[in-house]
């Protein structure tokens, strides 16, 4: 089953995208900031902003999703 039809997998993909984009923005801030209006990099730049501003909630969500994956 793809991640689009399974809510738990979709949530996991979104969380991983936010975490990866935040890390990529931390490592390469100039590339992402320079191309934030690009149709390809723009969504990842927005995910990086969500990860930076809501990092406690994103980290709690990652821990919860890890626990759910571990238990299930």
Molecular structure report:
The protein is an all-alpha fold and 72 residues long. It is 78% helix and 0% strand. It contains four helices and no strands. It has helices at 7-27, 29-34, 42-53, 55-71. The longest helix has 21 residues, at 7-27. The chain is globular. The protein starts with 6 loop residues before the first helix and ends with a helix. The mean pLDDT is 89.
- Nearest-angstrom radius of gyration? 13 Å
For this structure, the quaternary state is: single chain
Unreliable runs, pLDDT <50, ≥5 residues? Answer: none
Secondary structure: number of strands: 0
Order of helices and strands: HHHH
Largest sheet: none
Beta-strand residue fraction: under 5%
Average predicted local confidence, pLDDT:
89
Q: What level of helicity do the residues show?
A: over 70%
Shape: globular
Structural class: mainly alpha
How many domain units?
Answer: 1
Number of helical elements = 4
Distance between the termini: 16 Å
Write the layout of secondary structure elements.
Blueprint lengths: L6 H21 L1 H6 L7 H12 L1 H17 L1
Helix pairs in contact: 1-3, 1-4
Main location: Golgi
Protein name: Protein kish
Keywords: Golgi apparatus, Membrane, Signal, Transmembrane, Transmembrane helix
What labels would you give this structure?
72 residues, mainly alpha, 78% helix, globular
Please sum up the structure shown:
By secondary structure, this protein is mainly alpha-helical.
């Amino acid at each position: 089953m793809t991640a689009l039809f399974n809510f738990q997998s979709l949530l996991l993909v979104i969380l991983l995208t936010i975490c990866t984009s935040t890390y990529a923005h931390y490592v390469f801030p100039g590339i992402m900031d320079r191309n934030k209006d690009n149709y390809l990099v723009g969504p990842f730049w927005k995910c990086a902003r969500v990860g930076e501003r809501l990092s406690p909630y994103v980290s709690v969500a990652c821990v919860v999703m890890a626990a759910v994956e571990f238990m299930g």
